[in-house]
Amino acid sequence: MKRITINIEGMHCEACKKLIEMELTEKVEKVSVDLKNNKATVNFDVNKISKKEIIEIINQLGYKTQ
Q: Is 7 exposed, middle or buried (0-12, 13-18, 19+ CB in 10 A)?
């Protein structure tokens, strides 16, 4: 199990937070998006998904990751 924190730009409301969480929930062990600090903390199995794939999912939703 690996845990990462990703900075996310472009989130403006609770719907942004929920969209990211919904898209990642089935692919990772745990995801928590902090709207106030523009960050997502993700716990995932490196044998099932990579950090790069997680970032690509967030970017495809229209947000910018750092």
A: exposed
Domain borders along the chain are 2-65
Closest alpha carbon to 54 in 17, 46, 14: 46
In this model, does residue 42 exceed pLDDT 90? yes
Whole-angstrom distance, CA of residue 49 vs CA of residue 60: 16
The reported pLDDT for the residue numbered 26 is 93
| Cβ-contact 64, 8 below 8 angstroms | yes
Output phi, psi for 56, to 5 deg: -60, -40
Q: Could you tell me which CATH number the domain at 2-65 has?
A: 3.30.70.100
Tokens of 38: 């523009």
Q: What is the pLDDT of residue 52?
A: 97
The structure's pTM equals 0.93
